[in-house]
């Protein structure tokens, strides 16, 4: 694995100021810096991006999938609504780990549905910024062949 894409959806640019009781006080820039340092340690390049626009995420997932590069994806609310993003994962065969800062299953029922989860390698939710480093670890393990893969 040469490059990992970490893609972030709507409103994640507001981290730090946005509902800190749920999402904590760390900014997205700080999450990026920590993930970048971890990637450097592991010898992988990181492409880190955020957009409030569904189409950007669709295009970025397609690019990663077609390049055969894995994705750490926090799609924000698009997780619960976007069939287009799920189709992009499926259609481009992107290896995706779905991440969330918060434990979406302990929140409102509309957050219990994910269109991404059925086409993802796995889901990590509820560990704050650590969800991202756990996802990196899982991806490195999956590349080394240590993860069982459910047929999808
Ligand atoms: C989130 C959870 C989503 O339900 C929410 O819409 C977000 C953030 C998380 O990281 O906990 O924007 O993806």
Structure, explained:
- The protein is 40% helix and 16% strand.
- It is α/β, with parallel strands linked by helices and 152 residues long.
- It has one domain: Rossmann fold.
- It has a 5-stranded parallel β-sheet, sandwiched between helices.
- Helix 3 (54-67) packs parallel to helix 5.
- Bound molecules: 1,3,4-trihydroxy-5-OXO-cyclohexanecarboxylic acid.
- 1,3,4-trihydroxy-5-OXO-cyclohexanecarboxylic acid is lined by residues 11, 74, 76-77, 79, 100-102, 104, 111.
Keywords:
binds 1,3,4-trihydroxy-5-OXO-cyclohexanecarboxylic acid; 152 residues; globular; alpha/beta; Rossmann fold; 6 helices; 16% strand; single chain; 5 strands
The stretches of 5 or more residues where confidence is low (pLDDT under 50) are: none
Distance between the termini: 22 Å
**Count of helical stretches:** 6
- Total strand count, please? 5
Q: What is the percent of helical residues?
A: 40-55%
Question: Short summary of the structure?
Answer:
The protein is of the alpha/beta class and 152 residues long. It has 6 helices and 5 strands; from the N terminus they run E-H-H-E-H-E-H-H-E-E-H.
């Amino acid at each position: 694995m040469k490059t990992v894409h970490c893609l972030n959806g709507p409103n994640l640019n507001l981290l730090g100021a946005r509902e800190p009781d749920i999402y904590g006080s760390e900014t997205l820039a700080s999450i990026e810096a920590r993930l970048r340092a971890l990637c450097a340690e592991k010898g992988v390049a990181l492409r880190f991006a955020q957009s409030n626009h569904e189409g950007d995420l669709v295009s970025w997932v397609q690019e990663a999938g077609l390049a055969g590069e894995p994705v750490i994806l926090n799609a924000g609310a698009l997780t619960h609504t976007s069939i287009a993003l799920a189709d992009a994962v499926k259609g481009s065969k992107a290896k995706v780990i779905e991440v969330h800062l918060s434990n979406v299953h302990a929140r409102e029922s509309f957050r219990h549905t994910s269109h991404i989860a059925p086409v993802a390698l796995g889901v990590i939710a509820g560990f704050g910024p650590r969800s991202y480093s756990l996802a990196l670890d899982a991806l490195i393990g999956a590349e080394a062949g240590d993860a069982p893969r459910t047929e999808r």
